[in-house]
Design brief:
Blueprint (H helix, E strand, L loop, with lengths): L1 E5 L3 E5 L27 E5 L3 H11 L4 E5 L6 H13 L1 E3 L10 E8 L2 E7 L17 E5 L6 H16 L3 E5 L3 H5 L2 H4 L8 E5 H4 L12 H6 L5 E5 L5 E5 L3 E4 L12 H14 L4 H18 L16 H4 L1
Length: 316
């Protein structure tokens, strides 16, 4: 089985505490502008491309090919992200690029509140995915640098891959709805086998306000074959032409949701690729995403271990 993922790579750094918004002080170490934390920062692999590619490779145990089309810099953060990906078994379409800074996200989350600083990095060349061997499954996800032109480019890629037999999965995130009109996106949907995202992300793609329970069926009218709405602690709802359903999960006290959606995407694709029924694939995806929320380390926490940095010095 051959998987191909297209999307960004982000080096996430989770910090336990953050100065108050109104905190201010002179340049230096003062009580007014410095927060002393009890817990060390947590480095994580993020990005709608890198995170699901990593998870697919870990789920495959080396038995499947996982390729990643992404933007990755040859800086220190990019080196660590690259190491995690390579050790998991992910093959990058292009090596880390010298002189390019990797997308970096510094995150503080407390209960349901999140504050962060985000350097968005560089753009992903969607069309580069056509230079790789045709995959069995192609997963593309929107990210913070997409523009209206990306809708046309992604449509071209999905159309060509679908014509050659690939199953197409798209998670537009909130980004495509913000930059492209319905008319610009409409050519994409008929090439999509599975459309997935949250209600907030997918709702703008339908004409009228739709209750979340009815949203999956409404999304089918776009021309996609399967629609899945990720609903956080409430699980996920899904619809196909012939049936629909909902999978329940449970809330995690003091959970940390970063990386859960990307892990959901990977586990869903993995299950469908091996022939699982949609309801079973969604149930397994909810389970692995909930584990990510519980562990609090993004996709790296989905598998219960702590990747090392052995070999980073040789890469640098």
């Amino acid at each position: 089985m051959h998987f191909h993922v297209a999307g960004n790579t982000v080096f996430d750094l989770r910090i336990a505490q953050w100065p108050d918004a109104e905190a201010a002080g002179a340049d230096g170490w003062t009580a007014s502008n410095v927060v002393l934390t009890d817990d060390p920062p947590t480095p994580m692999l993020g990005g709608c491309g890198a995170a699901p590619a990593y998870a697919l490779a870990r789920l495959s145990h080396g038995l499947n090919t996982v390729r990643l089309n992404t933007s990755l810099g040859a800086d220190l953060f990019g080196g660590l992200a690259h190491l995690w990906l390579v050790h998991a078994g992910v093959a990058l379409l292009a090596p880390p690029e010298p002189g390019v800074a990797t997308s970096t996200h510094i995150i503080h989350a407390e209960a349901e509140r999140r504050r962060s600083a985000f350097y968005r990095g560089h753009r992903v060349d969607w069309c580069r995915s056509l230079e790789a061997p045709t995959p069995d499954w192609f997963l593309a996800a929107g990210y913070g640098l997409v523009e209206a032109a990306d809708a046309d480019e992604l449509t071209e890629v999905c159309s060509e891959l679908a014509k050659n037999g690939s199953q197409i999965v798209v998670d537009p995130g909130p980004w495509f709805a913000q930059c492209a009109t319905a008319d610009q996106l409409s050519p994409l949907w008929p090439h999509v086998d599975v459309l997935l995202g949250t209600a907030d992300e997918l709702g703008p793609h339908v004409e009228d306000h739709i209750e979340v329970d009815d949203l999956p069926k409404a999304l089918l009218k776009l021309g996609v074959r399967t629609a899945i709405v990720k609903r956080g602690a409430e699980g996920a709802s899904w619809a196909q032409r012939q049936n629909d359903g909902h999978t329940q999960t449970f809330a995690v006290d003091d959970g940390y949701s970063v990386g859960a959606g990307d892990t959901f995407n990977a586990r869903l694709v993995f299950g469908l690729a091996r022939g699982d029924e949609l309801s079973d694939a969604v149930r397994a995806a909810c389970g692995l995403a909930t584990r990510v929320v519980t562990e609090g380390r993004g996709v790296l926490g989905a598998f219960g271990d702590h990747p090392t940095v052995e070999g980073l010095d040789t890469w640098l």
